[in-house]
Specification:
The protein is an alpha+beta fold. The protein contains two helices and eight strands; from the N terminus they run ββαββββαββ.
Length: 113
């Protein structure tokens, strides 16, 4: 699968990056204490294990487990099981294995207020 990795910043790092980017003014705090930095928008290819644990957010802010194949179809714009997805475009945390080919072992969708 291809992902566009970004930095999810909190605290001082979030405030300084947001201020440098002009997203907030001097003395302002970042909303919800986070700021996402994605400077390149470059898609990187990751090997995803067929057995990877995947969770997506569904209505009611529930973490719902799904199969890797279903996630692939959702990312492509479908919704094969007609799930009530909370935010299909929200980012994911990827847990990558330590041994070559370093497959993604878990993908968990991140709630964004």
């Amino acid at each position: 699968m291809r992902f566009d990795p970004a930095l999810w910043l909190t605290g001082v790092a979030a405030e300084r990056a947001a201020r440098e980017d002009g997203a907030i003014g001097p003395g302002e705090a970042v909303p919800n204490d986070y700021y996402v930095v994605d400077e390149s928008h470059r898609l990187l290819t990751y090997v995803v294990a067929g057995t990877a644990r995947v969770t997506v957010l569904t209505r009611g802010v529930r973490s719902t487990p799904i199969a890797v194949t279903e996630l692939s179809r959702i990312v492509a714009g479908g919704n094969p099981r007609h799930r009530r997805l909370l935010e299909p475009k929200a980012g994911f945390w990827l847990r990558v294995g330590a041994r070559y080919p370093n497959p993604v072992l878990a993908l968990d969708q991140q709630y964004q207020p």
